[in-house]
Amino acid sequence: MTVPPQRLRIPFAKGDAIRFSSHLDLLRAWVRTLRRASVPLAYCQGFHPRPRVQLTAALPLGHTGLAELLDVWLERRIEIATLQPALAAALPAGLTVSGVAEVRLSEPALQTRVRAADYLVRVEWDEPRPAVEARITGLLGSEELLTQRRGKVLDLRPLIERLWVEQASTDDLMLGMRLAARPGGTGRPEVVLEALGMSEAFASYQRQRLVFSDD
Questions:
Q1: What is the per-residue pLDDT across 76-91, written as a single tens digit (0 to 9) for each?
Q2: Which CATH number fits domain 6-104: 3.40.50.300, 3.30.210.10, 3.30.70.580, 1.20.1560.10?
Q3: What is the 3-state secondary structure (H, E, C) of the chain?
Q4: Which partner for 73 in 52, 175, 187, 204 could form a disulfide, CB atoms 3.0-4.6 Å apart?
Q5: Does residue 1 carry a pLDDT above 60?
């Protein structure tokens, strides 16, 4: 197999305008954007060659993300300084790029290195802050938090690395969460809200950072 001469990493944000786009739809949007920007994409070998592009971690439907990452392999080298303005002109509404960097071709896939994610969750909730913090203390003090997902029983407790009140007002609550992402299970902020007894409240979810094993 021919080795592509260049691998680029593109940090980007996924905003409200496309928060209901699926992981596959987002990948397709990126391929269209790269083609419109005349990026010389490398292709996988096989019966149906596909562009070598790789998103780091799927965002659930309805979530936004501030620090998402895309890796792109190119069939020939390009000048990186010209790429960001070309992408900015081709991006659909809801996607913004914060930079472009070259990474080693031999670097492991980002998916294999993700160990957790930081979330900011806004909840319409009028309970006083001390009462919310008492809920959090009770949850974090639990030995296990069993929940069902896709027909399987999952213990949520080991997946909650951190949980705190970021901000609280009379009718608005901001929660910070660091949730593990492991082969055996990934923490979901919606499930954390359910465990806190807040599943009926309106909430919005933003992934603020991906945490890697070498961070």
A1: 999 999 898 999 999 9
A2: 3.30.70.580
A3: CCCCCEEEEEEEEECHHHCCCCHHHHHHHHHHHHHHCCCCECECCCCCCCECEEECCCCCCCCEEEEEEEEEEECCCCCHHHHHHHHHHHCCCCEEECCCEECCCCCCCHHHCEEEEEEEEEECCCCCHHHHHHHHHHHHCCCCCEEEECCEEEECHHHEEEEEEEEECCCCEEEEEEEEEECCEECCHHHHHHHCCCCCCCEEEEEEEEEECCC
A4: 52
A5: no
